[in-house]
Amino acid sequence: MADSKQDSPEVAVVGSANVDLVVPVPRHPVGGETILGGDVVRHPGGKGANQAVAAARAGGVRTTFIGALGRDASGDLIAGSLRAAGVDVSLVDRVDTPTGTALIAVSPTGENTIIVAPGANRHVGIGRAQARRIAAAAVLLAQLEVPLEVIRQAVEARAADTLVVLNAAPSQDLPKWLWGALDVLVVNEHEAADLAGTGGAPAVLAEALLRRVPAVVVTLGGEGSLVATREGGQVMVGAFSVDVVDTTGAGDTYCGVLAAELAKGRDLVEAAQVAAAAGALATTAAGAQEAVPTAADVTGLVSAR
After folding, report:
1. Is 3 a residue whose pLDDT tops 60?
2. How far apart are CA 283 and CA 193, in angstroms?
3. Is 216:185 a contact under the CB 8 Å cutoff?
4. Cβ of 135: how many Cβ atoms within 10 Å?
5. Which of 46, 102, 200, 232 has a beta carbon 3.0–4.6 Å from 204's, enabling a disulfide?
6. Backbone torsions φ then ψ of 209, nearest 5 degrees
7. Residue 1 above 50 pLDDT?
8. Residues with catalytic annotation?
9. C-alpha to C-alpha distance for 110 and 2, rounded to whole angstroms
10. What's the gap between Cα 123 and its chain centre?
11. Cβ(142)–Cβ(185) under 8 Å?
12. Is residue 248 within 8 Å of 269, Cβ to Cβ?
């Protein structure tokens, strides 16, 4: 099995799919305040689906998305976007609950705030077919927009040589069984502080998290990312300078490309460098999945550094 994974690596993404309702705002409102925004635009999104699109566009890997969509127009929109990116959607369940919806406000600087109504994401299932695909994958990539029980079933289905990567977002406490299953934890600075149970610089947070997981990537937005492993210490990976339009989905692009590069055999620092370029390019266009760059564009940015 290890040889087949190396020859034809696969990333299995277990996670959420949402339709993003995006509205531009002059600034983000404070509690109790109403402000006027611009026109609403619908985009295919959801952390899991976004990451699957990013992994597929990274090239060199087969990507399968395991999730749930409603039998509605939003579900059709997301399924079409996934297929167009080359993602295998044969294991996506269509359910009677409406497709998940994310309400996203985007400021002129590209910063966003997001509210998610999970909908069909509460009904993601790991059946026999999904379990077989996970066991065959080089990398299992998951997030926390689906029930933890789904993540538990997914990690139980993995093979001994399947690398488990968790993007622990949205932030929440992780059970002991999940900590014990992880190979790589990807978090932003706020999520790292929540999980570490302490404040401090990224290096301090990473050191605390390494007591529970073998490898940690702390993403730091425009400052780059910190890669920390028990064996290799800590390495800062610099950010790429781009003209930011919309940060929606940039973190998901980073995670999907990171998983793809790991599946292809890159070490964590190398994978983070490619993921950083992809995440940067994803901020240069509006939307989440539409903004995910091609492998050629990512290679061009990396080569230009």
Report:
1. no
2. 24
3. yes
4. 16
5. 200
6. -70, -30
7. no
8. 252
9. 42
10. 19
11. no
12. no
Would you state the structure tokens that stand for residue 43, as one six-digit string?
């985009």
Parallel/antiparallel/unpaired status of strands 139-142 and 163-167: parallel
Supply the pLDDT for residue 248.
82
pLDDT tens, 230-263?
A: 999 999 999 999 999 888 889 999 999 999 999 9
Q: List the beta bridge partners of residue 113.
A: 105
Tell me the C-alpha to C-alpha distance, in Å, between residue 288 and each of 60, 92, 223, 237, 297.
21, 20, 21, 23, 16
pLDDT at 215 over 80: yes
Q: Label residue 245 exposed, middle or buried (CB < 10 Å: 0-12, 13-18, 19+).
A: middle
At CA 273, angle to CA 269 and CA 275, rounded to 5? Answer: 110
Structure token pair of residue 268: 């964590």
* CB contact at 8 A, 19 and 102: yes
Answer yes or no: are the C-beta atoms of 201 and 176 closer than 8 Å: no
Tokens at residue 35, please? 């402000």
CB-CB contact of 166 with 185 (8 Å): yes
Determine the distance from the C-alpha atom of residue 199 to the mean position of all C-alpha atoms in its chain, rounded to a whole number: 24
* Residue 166 DSSP class: E
What does the pLDDT read at residue 110?
80
